[in-house]
Amino acid sequence: MKPSSAKAKGRETENLAADFAALVTGWPIERRRTNGPKDRGDLAGFPTWLAVEVKSSIGELDRGMDQAMVEAVNADAQYPLLIARRKRSDVARWYAGMPYLQMLQLIMELDGYKREANT
After folding, report:
1. First to last CA, the chain
2. Taking the domain 3-118, which CATH number applies?
3. Using one digit for the tens of pLDDT, what is the confidence trace for 18-39?
4. What is the pLDDT of residues 41-61, one digit of tens each?
5. C-alpha span between 105 and 39 (Å, rounded)
6. Which sequence spans correspond to the domains of the chain?
7. Range 64-73, long-range pairs (CB < 8 A, 24+ positions)
């Protein structure tokens, strides 16, 4: 794939991810311009505790997760989130993930909120 077509595919993937998130959540999610080494993630409009990196292929998981973790630090976000596009798949079926430890921390935090609400 040519670099220009790879960039175009990346932009298209980011726009599709942003549009889908905005549709589902009702939040003003949009594609964020890159900031070089101070990049804070590909999508803006999510809660500030989350930095979102979007990749156009699941073949980019390792590099994408490394980027998401750096961007979470840059954004002072507690959790990195990687969204990876699946070939020939609807956006709703793309993959989303984060490092396992941080996923467990998020689950425990959400469970604590749920328990507080039920007491």
Report:
1. 55
2. 3.40.1350
3. 999 999 999 999 999 877 788 9
4. 999 999 999 999 999 998 989
5. 24
6. 3-118
7. 65/97, 65/98, 65/99, 67/39, 68/41, 68/98, 69/99, 70/39, 71/39, 71/40, 71/41, 72/41
